[in-house]
Amino acid sequence: MDSTHLMLFVLLGILLLSGTSIFIALALSVLLFLSFFTAIPVMGIIERQFAGLDRFAMMCVPFFILAANIAGVGGISKRIIAVSKTLVGHFKGGLAMTTVLACTFFGAISGSAPATVIAIGKILYPALMETGYGKKFSLGVITASGAIALIIPPSITMIVLGAVCGMSIGALFVSGFGAGITISLVFMIYCYIYARNKDIKLSKRANRKEIWDACRDAKWALGVPLIIIGGIYGGVFTPTEASGVAATYTLFVAQFIHREVSTREIFKAIVDSATVSAQIMIILAAASVFAWAVTTSQLSQLIANWVMGISSSPYMVLILINIVFLIAGCLVDSVSSSIILGPLLYPAVIGAGIDPIHFGIITTVNLSIGMFTPPFGLNLFVATIVPKEGASMSVIIRGVTIFIVISMIALAIVTYVPSISLWLPRTLGMMK
Amino acid sequence: MLDRIATFLEEAFVGFTLLFATLLLFIGVVMRYFFNYAFEWSDELIRYVIIWSTFIGAGLCAKKGMHVKMDILLRILPAGFLRYWNMLLTIVAILFSLFCLMKGFQMVMLTQAFGRTGVSFAAPMWIIYLAVPLGYTLMFIHFSISFYRQWTGQEKPALEGDLDLAAAEQMKEEK
Q1: What is the dihedral of CA A130, A132, A138, A142, to 10 degrees?
Q2: Is residue A321 within 8 Å of residue A355, measured between CB atoms?
Q3: Cβ neighbours for B160, distance < 8 A, ≥ 6 positions apart
Q4: Which of A20, A130, A230, A371 has a CA 20 to 30 Å removed from the CA of A238?
Q5: Mean pLDDT, to the nearest integer, of A326-345?
């Protein structure tokens, strides 16, 4: 690599830190670099933006966002909570566990963590307060559990990561189950311990009929994960097809079955989804401009050599990845971090003999923890409006601190016991 | 008033394109699995529709101040200085959009001159490529308006978390 290539990264760093929009920083650093240091025509910047998006696998981003948004407004979250409550509500700490479980289920529809915090938190926060959990804990459990949605498929972060590193999105999705359920279990164990110490009152156990009724009422809602999971893993759909079918299905259920919102509100949700997906897709477009410039620089090979110089032990490399992505996760949103860092670290990971899918799942877990890590985790900001009266950032931060600590335990488990996440895709023959 | 009509048109455009692409994808899947008949052109058309939706939507994001940025510096700058800093960033955005719209139109002209068409259907490629310069034209306009509003003090710089708050609060009001 010649030293002028370093300028490309220096430019990107300066632009990102200055607060320029990320998509501009990515493309503009290439523009400045090409014009000042090379003779490569700048027209490539325009062509690459188009070509970067012109891939069918990339198309699932808008459709999954649409499915989740419609599920959020169309009465699906309410039904998912009801089912979760009949399943775990009667344990000690049952309502807190319900929150964790509902977020996990909702994660199977939604790929976005802040949306999950709002969809689940709005309904469960008043109930948590009433049962006597206290503001700090209630907000903590909602803010932290919302991030599980990022790990349970479908996940926008995984789609992006898979696209930029060339990993199988389907295999990444399946590996998300093991990791997501692990975190969910660790959270639920903590809820149990907390409730036992605080002596929170028990709720009555739901009988079979109540469980059945809740499930029957939620049958349309539960169809969404079925389409996505069953469809992709059964080999019926590609992830993109599954996303389109799931989006059509949620539209149909919201409009014709649940009928709790007007067509007008549904259309508004469609417009919001299109805007949010444009926000992500334009970064993907600019990222492919950047990737195009980077291919000539071999920087990622340099990083790989550097990492291997420190240690070639996969354990050490895994720790390094954890640290890098944890820091990135609490500074930038998960999509941008995976776009920028994923391709840079990928060769080092392969060099150390780590399974690419394992790397993908660890990255996703790290970024999801970043979602509720101060100072810039997005879930924290969203959580301030979960209570009707609003909540101060300091209460929320005190509430999530313990969850950050226990997430580290879950992260360690996922990192050093690869079979938790890799067992399912291996069994299904999606990877070797 | 003009602003509201423009916003309405942009929102209607991105909404309908996304809806259209969704239904097209669904119908394509149904046709393939149940009627064993594949539209060869549907995958390609979906890609182009979503690309159009993306670039027009990016203009909408510019208008709403929704483009993702790293706001560490913006959060620690003193409020008085932040205003000027943000105006500088907006100028950078305006110049960048201007570059992309000019180069984008140039690319469209070149493609038109070559007369290329899509792989599986006959629409001329230059019409499809038009999404890029049009999107940047919208961004150029919206960034310029935003600069003017900051200059006259009508608009304050928005930070990442605040936007999510605003969106979530809006959701709450609608509930």
Answers
A1: -60
A2: no
A3: A333, A376, A378, A381, B68, B69, B71
A4: A371
A5: 82
> Could you give the CA distance from residue B173 to residue A403 in angstroms, rounded to a whole number?
30
Which pair of tokens denotes residue A273?
Answer: 């989804």
Q: Which candidate, B68, B65, B168, B71, places its Cα nearest to that of A114?
A: B168
**Over 70: is that where the pLDDT of B163 sits?**
no
Residue that is written with structure tokens 């976005």 in the block: A112
Cβ of A3: how many Cβ atoms within 10 Å? 7
Residue B169: closest CA among chain A residues belongs to which residue? A385
**Cβ pairs bridging A and B (under 8 Å):** 194
Q: Which residue has the tokens 């290329």?
A: B116
User: Across the interface, do B18 and A66 touch by the CB < 8 Å criterion?
Assistant: yes
pLDDT band at B175; cut points 50, 70, 90: very low
* Cα A138–chain centre separation: 21
CA of B39, closest CA in chain A: separation in Å? 14
pLDDT beyond 90 at A427? no
- What's the confidence (pLDDT) of residue B162? 56
- Measured CA to CA, the distance from residue A409 to residue A404 in angstroms comes to 9
Start-to-end CA span in chain B (Å) = 27
pLDDT > 70 in chain A, percent: 98
Q: Per-residue pLDDT tens for A3-23?
A: 677 788 889 889 988 888 889
CA distance A323 to chain B (A): 19
pLDDT of residue B139: 94
**What DSSP assignment string belongs to A283-336?**
HHHHHHHHHHHHTTTTHHHHHHHHHHHH---HHHHHHHHHHHHHHHHHHS-HHH
Q: What is the average pLDDT across A57-66? A: 85
In 3D space, the residue among A247, A334, A232 whose CA is nearest the CA of residue A283 turns out to be A334
Q: Please answer yes or no on whether A240 and B25 come within 8 Å at the CB atom.
A: yes
Q: How far is A345 from chain B (nearest CA, A)?
A: 21
Burial A25-62 (b: 16+ CB within 10 A, else e): bbbbbbbbbbeeeeeeeeebbbbbbbebbbebebbbbb
Q: Which residues in A lie closer than 8 A to residue B70 (C-beta atoms)? A: 16-17, 19, 22, 331-332, 336
pLDDT for position B100: 93
- If you average pLDDT over each of A153-157, B62-66, B85-89, which comes out highest? B85-89
Cβ atoms of A379 and A330 closer than 8 Å: no
Chain B residues touching residue A335 (CB < 8 angstroms): 68
Which of A232-241, A297-306, A370-379, B133-142 is least confident? A297-306
Q: How far is A22 from chain B (nearest CA, A)?
A: 5
Residue A296 has pLDDT above 70, yes or no: no
Do A144 and A365 form a contact (C-beta atoms < 8 A)? no
Averaged over B124-137, what is the pLDDT?
Answer: 90
Asked whether the CA dihedral A111, A115, A117, A120 is positive or negative, the reply is negative
Residue whose pair of structure tokens reads 């990845």 in the numeric block: A321
Top-confidence residue, B168 or A271: A271
